[in-house]
Amino acid sequence: MSTTPRIDVNCDMGESFGRWSLGDDAAMMPYLSSVNIATGYHAGDPVTIRRTVEGAVEHGLGIGAHIAFPDLMGFGRRRMVIPPRDLQDYCLYQIGALQGFVRAAGGRLAHVKPHGALYVMASEDPEMAHAIAAATAAVDPSLPLMLLNRQCEDAVVRAGVTLVPEAFPDLGYDDHGKLVIEKSKAAWNPDTVAERAVRMAVEGKVASVGGVDIDVDARSLCIHGDAPNSVDIVRTVRAALDAAGVDIVPLGSLIPAV
């Protein structure tokens, strides 16, 4: 059996809205294996979704629905209290919308990943995680659900969906393994991010902001596309992973190993 490390490298995309533009999606795509495309609740509009999906299909990338709270003004980063049944409907609506664009472009939806506050809350709250997983299963139970860790895995599995943990080499972690969220994405040193990415993929470790080594259980690494130097970062990360002998593959290829 091969011991070569295998990892997915993803990025959140399609987060422009109308005349407002965020990130250089086209320049990021050649270095990725998967993308998470905004579905209109925190960012994205029909034209942006179509263009982003078409680009992802052209590059052969795994395409995920990047679902969120209905929070355009807050970019999906504000916590909301929503009944589980309503949340399930919100998620089903967004997943279905993106699936339509993906099918129209000749592709296939590959996964679901919550955004912002919904991501953080669902990674800690089993009821929320189950609502998202139930919506995912209603569309296609073979679609894996990305979350930060396995804390709510039982709730996700109970809905008939596979949970895939994710890691962030361009964000800090506190000593308890929780993300240190930046108010706006800072320009990290590309070499630093690359070193962290390789260690996450090969050793399953990362140094916290307090200097403590913590365990990272990840099948996918997320590189943010909204940093001032995102393209330099993802290019450097990809080169470092290749040099370390890590296979970069779409998330769907890793599901049997999860």
Description:
The protein is an alpha/beta fold and 258 residues long. The chain has one domain (6-251): Glycoside hydrolase/deacetylase (TIM Barrel). The chain has 8 helices and 12 strands. The chain has helices at residues 25-28, 46-58, 84-104, 116-122, 126-139, 153-158, 190-202, 230-243; strands at 6-13, 34-38, 62-67, 109-114, 145-147, 163-167, 172-173, 179-180, 205-207, 213-215, 220-222, 247-248. Strands 1, 2, 3, 4, 5, 6, 11 and 12 form an 8-stranded parallel sheet that branches. Strands 7-8 form a two-stranded antiparallel sheet. Helix 3 (84-104) packs parallel to helix 5 (126-139) and helix 7 packs across helix 8 (230-243). The longest helix is centred in the middle third of the chain and has 21 residues, at 84-104. 49% of the residues are buried. InterPro entries: Glyco_hydro/deAcase_b/a-brl, LamB/YcsF/PxpA-like.
Q: Bin the helical content.
A: 25-40%
User: Mean pLDDT score, rounded?
Assistant: 94
Instruction: Sketch the major β-sheet.
Output: 8 strands, parallel
Q: Which structural category do the helix and sheet elements fall into? A: alpha/beta
Distance between the termini: 16 Å
Please identify, by name, the CATH architecture: Alpha-Beta Barrel
- Residues in β-strands, percent: 15-25%
Q: Would you state the CATH class?
A: Alpha Beta
Number of domains: 1
CATH superfamily: Glycoside hydrolase/deacetylase
Question: Which residue ranges are poorly predicted, with pLDDT under 50 across at least 5 consecutive positions?
Answer: none
CATH fold name, please?
TIM Barrel
Organism: Streptomyces meridianus
Protein name: LamB/YcsF family protein
